[in-house]
Amino acid sequence: FQYLKRFDQGCDLDRFQYEALSVEGSPAECLQLFLLHCGVMDPSWAELHNFTCFLNVQLRDCEASVFCNPDFVQDTLSGF
Question: What is the pTM of this model?
Answer without folding.
Answer: 0.77
